Amino acid sequence: MVKLNTKNLGFRIQLTLSIFVLLTAIPIGLMWYSSSEQILQNSVQQLFRQSNQVITSHLDDFFDEAHLVYQHQITEQQSLPAVVKQRDNLLKYLANVLAHHDEIDYFYFASADGHLLSLGRDEFGNFVRIESDHDQAGPTTSYSTDSAGIGTEVINTNAHFDPRTRQWFQQAVKSKGPVWSDIYPGAIENVLGVSLANALYDNNGNFLGVWGLDLTLSTLEHELQKNILSPNSRILLISDQGAIIASSDKGLPALMNLGTPLTPIVNIIWENIYGTPPSNTIEVNQYPLQNSTWMSAHTKYKLGEDRYLTILLISPICDFIGEFINAKYYAMFFTIIAMLLAMVFGSQGTRYILKPINQLQATVKRITLGQWSSRTQLDREDELGELSRSFDNMAEHLQETICQLKDEQKETTRLNNLLAYNNQELERKVQDRTSELQSANVQLQLLANFDPLTQIANRRHFWQLFEQRSKNNTGWLMVLDLDNFKSINDTYGHLAGDRVLQHFCSVCQSCIGTHALFGRIGGEEFALYVNDHDVLNIHRYAQQLLACVRNTPITLDGNSIQITTSIGVTHSTLDKKNVYAEADKMLFKAKTAGKDRVIFLSETSPQS
């Protein structure tokens, strides 16, 4: 058969791999057949455990729904005393809780005087309001209402009802938190219920009453029926006293005691597990009954302090044996077939497939070692032959590509060297240009801030520095003007006038010291700012400046010319805004008074 399909290598590979898988499955199948009973028991036990976990999870959701209501009340603790004191507000609160918690059947509040207001759903989902007729224990009336508790249609009456005598009320008063009541028959026949009650106190610790909510366990029956493992399986919830609370079998009524003859297998199991200590593990056991064997799994579910429910799952083992036996026979049949096929095709198929693969592998190793001219030259017409020809073409292309890459590598090296040289030249030019820009920035800074003729601060820069120094300090502003500067310009020319201005600045800078701020604010007008609080020191300072200028003449065209200056002085304080105008005014007075003098503003004169 292999020779008839020489061009269909895929078929041969799939067939050979299938044979190998089956050969591996033979010992496993034999082992499984010999231990089938143990496998069956383990499989059923695993099913029991999974079903038990699902039921336990549903019980958690069922009972956690009730605790969630009181957890929410913690955030509303300050407002609840006011809610229970007003009947309409209390009814709205009860309706709101029921709307958000479907598992709760009734939610109610019983005051310290025995008054009851309850809202809930009956077995058909209709809303019912139960309310005391007076503000204390006494007659009660049941009304048919909407979801908000509004309605006046009377359903039933009770001559007297005192919630304070009920177990849930008394247990809540004694407890510091929510407490479960015992399981009890509800208002609906054969339906069991349980209450979670919680006492309410005001901010001063005064007892106001007890909250209560009811859960009916009949809603669990549908969940139990969904999780049965076989047609004859049963799942039961049993109380500590041996009463069936809920069952997947509708033939077992609620509250039925396990002592009745209707449940012989359950009675046998209950006798063995009754009184066992609570455990989180699931116990799985077998029990013989007449001509059949039953498997059971049970665990304890904690309902409250010292109260537990027993979750019991039972099923006859014969429910699982039928399908198991059929599967066992099928496994044996296919195992025998696999053995026959493996004997026929295994040896020849493997040899035929591996020979060209080994040849191709050897060629790959030679190429890996650098023998680029190696080729497989496998002469076959199947998929491996096509693979061989494709591989030879790839090797030839690879050889050409490697030669091309070597040539490109040489060119890349040359280009990289050229690029490195160009980068160095570019970096040098960038550095030169950066130095030029820095020098130009320095020149621009000098031109922007300093007078090009006298090399002192220009008008803009002087007043900028003046603003900075006088912002948080007091000092003295002097405005200076060269006397008779116009006549010098007219007599000796403007170039000589520029020399006079330069000479004047040089003399002033030698006299004023490094701490003073000196700048040219006009043609022959200058400004001087000094931080000195003593008026007598400033007076002497100004007189020395006048004498220094007067006693330092300049030579023009061979003539020694004495120059003088007039000075206006004002005190610069933090609250003054017009110091320049004041100093300029004093300068004008100095000019008018005969020049070559200093005039202080009247309130800052030495005489003052």
Largest sheet: 9 strands, antiparallel
Please state roughly what percent of the residues sit in beta strands, choosing from under 5%, 5-15%, 15-25%, 25-35%, 35-45% or over 45%. 15-25%
Q: What's the count of strands? A: 21
Shape: flat
Query: Which whole number gives the mean pLDDT?
Result: 80
User: What's the CATH topology name of the domain at 459-604?
Assistant: Alpha-Beta Plaits
Q: Any guess at the CATH architecture of the domain at 459-604? A: 2-Layer Sandwich
CATH class of the domain at 459-604: Alpha Beta
Assembly state: single chain
Name the CATH homologous superfamily of the domain at 459-604.
Answer: Reverse transcriptase/Diguanylate cyclase domain
Low-confidence stretches: 186-190
Protein structure class? alpha+beta
Provide the helix percentage.
40-55%
What is the CA-based Rg, rounded?
55 Å
Helix count?
Answer: 14
State the end-to-end CA separation: 134 Å
Domain HAMP: 351-403
Main location: membrane
EC number: 2.7.7.65
Transmembrane segments: 12-33, 329-346
